[in-house]
């Protein structure tokens, strides 16, 4: 049976409740706590960086020939520099924030995928602490590798966007790139359970691109929303990791390692 885009998209939303019932509601309380920590931490980091940039710009005004400008001009430029710093932090979070979330949540996502895999009627290949460590390690490496591939593809899309016809669809292509690589990253835990290497998992994902785009699309769209998107996306991460486990296991033959 061919896995479709709507299969992937529906599986994410149906997995939101499934994670709570199969794994436990503690998952979302943990995510909430992490969300608060990240909000406070990112706010302090952004404010600190903005303050440092403002101080540097203000010192430049005082110590250079620009000191002849009126005080209000200095105030405006310093304020704009702080705003630009905040915007840069937000843009950076949109660009690499997904990979950061995947790395930080890798242990939790691996546990969720394991439990959803078992709930779907499958046996874990190796139920041990070492297996969990290996799964987490692979999840981190895969997240970093796909983040690199994601950035390379986005650079290519940006270059192609200078072509008039391509420029119209460039934003859509960018979202598809984000969704595809996020979808594979979240699903790699389930694909690993079937005995597939990272290369075999990528090959399978290329054969069912639409499904994995559907799995990664909600997370990708949320990550593109400034300021609050990355925090809301945290709550979709468990469902995105859970989505592929029962769906893929039911249609994916076991592969000998």
Structure overview:
With 257 residues, the chain is mainly alpha-helical. Helices cover 83% and strands 0% of the residues. The radius of gyration is 22 Å and the shape is globular. The model has no long low-confidence stretch (mean pLDDT 81).
Low-confidence stretches: none
> What does the largest sheet look like?
none
What overall geometry do the principal axes of the alpha carbons give? Answer: globular
Number of helices: 9
Would you list the SSEs in sequence order as H and E? HHHHHHHHH
Please state the structural category. Answer: mainly alpha
Instruction: Kindly report the oligomeric state of this protein.
Output: single chain
Total number of beta strands: 0
Radius of gyration: 22 Å
Residue share in β-strands: under 5%
Mean pLDDT reading:
81
Give the helix level as a range of percent.
over 70%
Distance between the termini: 24 Å
Q: Helix and strand layout, with pairings?
A:
Layout: H1 5-22, H2 26-63, H3 71-104, H4 106-119, H5 129-160, H6 164-193, H7 198-207, H8 209-223, H9 229-251
Helix pairs in contact: 1-8, 1-9, 2-3, 2-9, 3-5, 4-5, 4-6, 4-9, 5-6, 6-7, 6-8, 6-9, 8-9
Summarize the structure.
The chain is an all-alpha fold.
Name its key features.
257 residues, mainly alpha, 9 helices, 83% helix, 0% strand
């Amino acid at each position: 049976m061919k896995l479709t885009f709507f299969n992937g998209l529906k599986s994410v939303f149906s997995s939101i409740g499934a994670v709570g019932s199969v794994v436990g509601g503690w998952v979302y309380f943990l995510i909430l706590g992490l969300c608060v920590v990240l909000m406070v931490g990112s706010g302090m980091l952004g404010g600190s960086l903005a303050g440092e940039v403002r101080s540097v710009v203000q010192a430049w005004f005082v110590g250079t020939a620009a000191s002849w400008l009126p005080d209000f001009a200095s105030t405006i430029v310093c304020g704009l520099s702080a705003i630009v710093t905040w915007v840069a932090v937000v843009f950076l979070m949109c660009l690499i924030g997904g990979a950061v979330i995947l790395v930080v949540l890798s242990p939790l996502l691996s546990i969720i995928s394991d439990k959803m895999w078992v709930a779907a009627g499958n046996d874990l290949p190796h139920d041990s602490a070492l297996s969990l460590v290996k799964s987490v390690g692979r999840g981190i490496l895969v997240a970093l590798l796909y983040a690199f591939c994601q950035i390379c593809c986005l650079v290519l899309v940006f270059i192609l966007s200078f072509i008039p016809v391509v420029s119209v669809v460039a934003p859509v292509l960018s979202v598809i790139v984000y969704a595809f690589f996020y979808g594979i990253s979240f699903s790699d835990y389930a694909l690993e359970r079937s005995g597939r290497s990272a290369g075999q998992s990528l090959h399978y994902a290329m054969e069912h691109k639409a499904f994995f785009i559907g799995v990664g699309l909600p997370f990708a769209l949320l990550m593109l929303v400034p300021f609050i998107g990355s925090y809301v996306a945290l709550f979709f991460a468990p469902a995105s990791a859970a989505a592929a486990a029962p769906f893929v296991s039911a249609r994916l033959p076991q592969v000998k390692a």
